[in-house]
Amino acid sequence: MIAHWTGWGGGPWFLLFPLFWLTVIVVALVLFRRGRAGWHHQRPGESALAERYARGEISLEDYEQRLAVLRRTER
């Protein structure tokens, strides 16, 4: 005998599964972006100091000394 299927059968379940996976994907993307942002975050003073060192405006000794002062005062 052939089963006869009428109506939606499963109720609202057919909407919940795609909604569940969409929520999982959105949460994963938010967590991934938040995690990556923290890895490359540098304080503004340290960033400016690093740029000056990269351009050759200050020596390595000056850079290290000023960086130590910045890290002491920013805490």
Structure described in brief:
By secondary structure, the chain is mostly helical. It contains 3 helices and no strands. The protein has helices spanning 13-39, 44-54, 60-73.
Describe the protein's architecture and organization.
It contains 3 helices and no strands. The protein has helices at residues 13-39, 44-54, 60-73. The model has no long low-confidence stretch (mean pLDDT 80).
**Low-pLDDT sequence parts:** none
Distance between the termini: 77 Å
Q: What's the average pLDDT?
A: 80
Oligomeric description of these chains? single chain
Secondary-structure element order, N to C: HHH
Q: Helicity, in percent?
A: 55-70%
Beta-strand proportion: under 5%
SSE layout and pairing:
Elements: H1 13-39, H2 44-54, H3 60-73
Helix pairs in contact: 2-3
Characteristic terms for this protein:
75 residues, mainly alpha, rod-shaped, 3 helices
